[in-house]
Amino acid sequence: PGHSEQPAGAMNLNKLFPRLTIRVKLAVAFALLAVVPLVLVAAIATRITIRHLQTLAQVTLQHDVQMAREQTEHSLEAVERDVAYLAHSVFAPLFGPSATDRWETARHAASTFLAFNPTLFRIKVFDAQGGLLFVASSSETDQVRGDGDDAGGVYYVLRATTLGPTERLMIPVELRRRSDTGEVATLPAVAIVLPVHRDDGALLGVIVGEAYAAVLFDGLEVGSPHLEGITGLVDPDGMTLYHSALKRDWSNLLLSPSEVDLRVDLPTEVVAAVVSGAAGTVVTSGERIVSFAPLRLAETGIREMMLYRVIPLSMLEAPVRSFLKWVTIGGLLVLAIVLGLAVLAAHQFTQPIYQLQRGTRRLARGLSDTGVEISTNDELEDLARDFSAMGQALAEHRDRLEDLVAQRTEALRETHAELEHVLEHSADAIIGLDAQHHIRVWNSGAESLFGYTAEEALGQDVDGLILPDDQRAKVEAAFLEREMAERGSIVNFHSLRVPKNGKAFPVSFTQTVICDSEGREGGYSLILRDIRAQAKQDELIRRSERFAAVSVMAGGLAHEINNPLAVIRNRLECMEQEVHDRCDHCFLEEDFAVLCEHTERLQEVTRDLLGFAQQDEEKPAPVRLDQISFRVARLLERTFASRNISLTVKADPDLPQPMGSAKAIEIVCMNLLLNAADATPSGGAVTLETRSTASEDAVELEVSDTGSGVPVEFRDRIFEPFFTTKATGQGTGLGLAVCRSIVERHRGEIRLTANEGGGSRFVVSLPLRTLELLWNRQRY
């Protein structure tokens, strides 16, 4: 069967939720399929219902505001008409010349009119100077002129002078009245001012009707009973004249800035719409509906007032909540039923999947019984069959991989052990550094070479530990740093390093960069090799080359000198014989003896030079050191006796016999004894001794004396050709050089040490191994 891959940009819905089992997901899916449509329908129905109720509430509220406005305007217009009627029909004729006897009738008519009008509570008449002419009240019908109610007369007259003959004015006023108990109360009212003019237009007086403000504005709260809210009346500045929750008592109709402001209740944008003078309805962000309309009183003189009403949307949501409650209860019941059915169905659907999961886990643990038996007669059964075949193939492949991994692991372990063994037992110092040149690896070769243990060295800066502290080392470190930056490695660089004892020695220096698998530098590896032996060998090579040059020069010089010396010696002997024959005991005979002696000395020098420069054709053979020792001692016996020096020979006849040239060893013994005799003062002693070494792999020939010894500063040069500590004319400087050359050709060693009691001690060590392959033919 084919398969399809999910597109790269597709959303995986499974990742939108936390990890859930398939059964839970199926149950949730069934629940969503059942509940989501119900929730959508309920949500849409609720939304439509709320919108309908909100629209209905807006229309109803706007209608209520309009009705309250019309009723208030009707009340104001009605009281205005009543006052105009009384003014024209009752009080205007009283300003004529024969109206004195009509005041009582007018008072009676006005009192009767006020008794049946709940809005008007008093009628006042003022002359043109503001004097009170008449007052009538709904509660006091027996008032006469000048009873103290003339307050405001001048104000009314001044306002009336601005009006024409047919014009009238409504003015909000505050009246103070004294009750029966003597208390003064403030009564907000609306005064209707009507002027009275003569035919020529002159002002005769003013008629003022004062009405209760509370009665005039009683229709403000007229509205539908199910839309209960807050009703308010404000002036164009937004100051509250009436507020159904905060200012219901009409205690003050003329507001001050400290009174209740519309901006306290409503947002700024809604306040601007209310005081704009237009009618309308808005919904605020605080979930409230505000409807407003202006009170327009044409030709009344009262400033335009704005009526508004506010109801919360929450009062519209009560039926919606009831509807949602029953929808929720029904949805929960449906969800419970669906979940129950979903669990049962999910169990049947997911049982094969869980069987595959258990088989996968067994396969992951490496168990062999990974087969799965599923009988669903669909794709799951095919999947289970393919899974069983795959499990068997994987098991076989795993077995092969395990065998291969075991083999590779063993090979890797062996390789690691070998590398670890090489690293640990390498004679060279192998040092691993991190990126900051701090020591991470310090093998046994480094411990042996520098004297620091791994515990002492790990974590230390390598330059601070073993680099010399001098200017040369600093210059060298800067050079090495540049080389590493340019080349990435330094190979076989000869330098000096300081071990723990503080004595610097030469090393061969190799440094490379260690990189990780991604090519980033992670540290450095150092390999330091002790080249003191190599330096010594190089010095020996240079010395051998120098000896070879000296040998060639000495051989040529000896040949050039030897022939003239032979002629001179021959002629001197003839002359000496002739002088002896002619003049016995003549002084010339002594001179010839001196000349012959020095000639003999020159011939000895030439023989030494020839012995140093020429090769000996003698083949190696066993050498008896005891016989050589006694033979040389007998030859030099008279020499030592003449100098008053005792010579002691300690030769072991059973000593093993080294391979070599007996003649050459005899020359070594002779030169060492003669040097000892020259260095020993009269009365001293010289000892010649032969012995085996402690390891019995070599024999030694030792010559010691009781002289002054060799100064320390000359010990390193004592074996160089032509170097001597004797006075001029007493030595050639070739004796010890010839001895060293002979001993080295025998693969032996000659060394100089100081005697404990004073003097020098020369020790010749000759190996007992065969020399057939090592012998270099040389004539001494």
Percentage of residues in strands: 15-25%
What's the total helix number? Answer: 17
Radius of gyration: 70 Å
Largest sheet entry: 5 strands, antiparallel
Strand order of the largest sheet: 2-1-5-4-3
Q: Could you tell me the mean pLDDT?
A: 76
Structural class: alpha+beta
Shape: elongated
Low-confidence stretches: 141-148, 771-780
End-to-end distance, in Å? Answer: 101 Å
Number of strands: 22
Q: Can you give the helix content as a percent range?
A: 40-55%
Summarize the structure.
This protein has helices at residues 22-91, 103-115, 153-160, 213-216, 268-274, 318-364, 379-425, 444-450, 454-457, 462-466, 471-487, 532-582, 587-613, 625-635, 637-642, 662-679, 735-745, and strands at residues 120-127, 132-137, 169-178, 184-197, 203-212, 230-234, 240-243, 280-283, 288-295, 305-312, 429-434, 439-442, 489-497, 505-515, 521-530, 621-622, 646-650, 659-660, 685-692, 698-705, 749-754, 760-767. By secondary structure, it is of the alpha+beta class. The two termini are 101 Å apart.
Describe the protein.
The protein is an alpha+beta fold. Helix content is 45%, strand content 20%. The protein is built from 17 helices and 22 strands. It has a five-stranded antiparallel sheet with strand order 2-1-5-4-3. The protein has a five-stranded antiparallel sheet with strand order 7-6-10-9-8, with helices on both faces. The chain has a five-stranded antiparallel sheet with strand order 12-11-15-14-13. The radius of gyration is 70 Å and the shape is elongated. Mean pLDDT is 76; it is low at 141-148 and 771-780.
